[in-house]
Amino acid sequence: MTLRAVGARAGVSRGAPYGHFENKEHLLTRLAIDTWTSLADEVERLRADPGCTPDARLERAVLALIEVGRRHPHRYALMFGTPADDPEAAGSAGRLENEFLALVADVVGEPGALHYGALVMSSAHGIAGMELSGHLSKEKWQVGSEELVRTLIDAIRGQANGLPG
Amino acid sequence: MTLRAVGARAGVSRGAPYGHFENKEHLLTRLAIDTWTSLADEVERLRADPGCTPDARLERAVLALIEVGRRHPHRYALMFGTPADDPEAAGSAGRLENEFLALVADVVGEPGALHYGALVMSSAHGIAGMELSGHLSKEKWQVGSEELVRTLIDAIRGQANGLPG
DNA sequence: CAATTTCATATGACTGTGTCATGTGAACTA
DNA sequence: TAGTTCACATGACACAGTCATATGAAATTG
Hints:
The structure is a homodimer.
Chain A: H1 3-10, H2 24-48, H3 54-71, H4 73-81, H5 87-108, H6 113-133, H7 138-141, H8 145-162
Helix pairs in contact in A: 2-3, 2-4, 2-5, 3-4, 3-5, 3-6, 3-8, 5-6, 6-8
The structure holds a DNA duplex.
């Protein structure tokens, strides 16, 4: 997305955004932060929903992340493309990570939650990325993202419960 | 990387690459293909090494993918950023995917190899991506990529062997 | 050896994009 | 009414991707 395109869509000139943002990267960082925050809000609501098992809640959270990639690929790329050294970006990303951490802890227990949380977060991001880039073709692998998420959660639950410590 | 920078490094002018590549995207696609191919070669050699267990071989293959991300972040981004609709790119990517598939089959058995292969490939990509974007800070998660890879492989092996079908 | 074709590259021009200095008009304020 | 503020437009600059054209060296051909 070019700044001219942003301007055109908003009906203003190309230089107008520079009154509100220091440069293009700052504008993009703002978009990334908003996306992180909105997704964190969604997962937070979802985590408060008592109407399903911890497994199902975690699954829906992971699918929510993947859905952002499907619906807003550019925004999704910004989330993980924006350097994490911006404090506000790191904060909003951390909020989502903490939501995932809590959901994972409900599935695998508190010890090891960080461990499996990192794996779930990374795998979710990887599934989204593979699907986005077209490298997760159903024709090739005969599975879709939804089944992968299911398999992932089953695997870590089994691993965590079967081999404590 | 701009084409002018490519030219400067090669000691030629900015337009010189256009005698060899149709446009910038084609040049970058070529880089992506070379990276896919080189990694597939490396994993193929690794797979022929009889000196370690199937687990260890798969682990080293995943780490090889992550290592590309560490050493050549731009090339890594090109691999999964280049649209997979280019036939040659799809072919070279498919070669690496098949190497992974074979390695995974040695660990979890033939049935379910596609299933777990897709998960391993996606998770590996996700771990690499999280590390690259700085979202896998050891301070936050208290784990590094190496341990995540270990955990991932343990989890899918346990899952595949414990619950057949 | 001379003429010709081929080929990689240089050069200059055009477009599009990020950026900024400056100007302008409207809304708000004293 | 005059001054301040604020968002935006305008025009300019630099740079990147692209292409048409020119040049000069190497290879080929007679």
